[in-house]
Design a protein that fits this description.
By secondary structure, this protein is mainly alpha-helical. Helices cover about 50% and strands about 5% of the residues. Strands 1-2 form a two-stranded antiparallel ribbon. Strand 1 and strand 2 form a beta hairpin. The longest helix has 24 residues.
């Protein structure tokens, strides 16, 4: 295959831009959902993971052991109180399980699946390594076959964005025509409701 130089200076495969996933308009329904998935990829900081770390205790060598013990207990109590206030603000509702995706070339079904999966992995605060293997529980039919043949051996190394893109690519022959039409309809006739 011929190689060409990409915008970032990295070599890209000739025709990479012709893949259906690279032809999705960023402002269309699918473009927005792929952008949302990209936000939770490991390259981006995830909201909610900014928990403040508590510095270790600095022992004052000039004070007595009983003073240190009492001071530590007071600081520990204050820290526990502060932690319980912060944790009480966390939402207690978890997202529902995504509806099963069968691999049919239906843009709306695919969009719903990707959106529900994104909410699911965020809501349960899964580690990135567990995203794809967890989501595989919600695959059936052609989509599950693709997962077992192409992804399952090394699922921990797949990002959710890469996985969603590859499922889209696996349906490229039938999906590409639908992508163009549905992207047009979604963007021009009845805009999708932003999430």
């Amino acid at each position: 295959m011929l190689m060409e130089e990409g915008i970032t200076g990295e070599p890209t495969l000739n025709g990479e831009r012709l893949r259906p996933v690279n032809q999705v308009e960023p402002t269309s329904c699918l473009g927005r959902i792929f952008n949302k998935v990209a936000e939770i990829s490991p390259e981006y900081p995830r909201p909610g993971n900014t928990e403040a770390s508590v510095p270790p205790e600095d022992a004052d060598p000039s004070s007595s052991d009983s003073d240190n013990s009492l001071g530590r207990r007071v600081k520990l109590s204050a820290r526990k109180s502060r932690h319980s206030k912060n944790s009480s603000r966390l939402p207690t509702l978890k997202p529902r399980e995504p509806d099963a995706y069968h691999g049919r070339p239906d843009v709306h079904e695919f969009h719903k699946f990707v959106d529900e999966c994104s909410n699911y992995v965020r809501g349960y605060s899964l580690t990135e390594e567990r995203y794809v293997s967890t989501i595989s529980s919600f695959l059936n039919g052609k989509a599950y076959k693709y997962y077992t043949m192409m992804v399952s051996m090394d699922a921990a190394s797949w990002s959710l964005e890469k996985f969603d893109s590859s499922i889209l690519q696996s349906n490229s022959s039938t999906f590409s025509c639908l992508l163009t039409f549905d992207s047009f309809v979604c963007a021009n006739v009845h805009p999708c409701i932003p999430s």
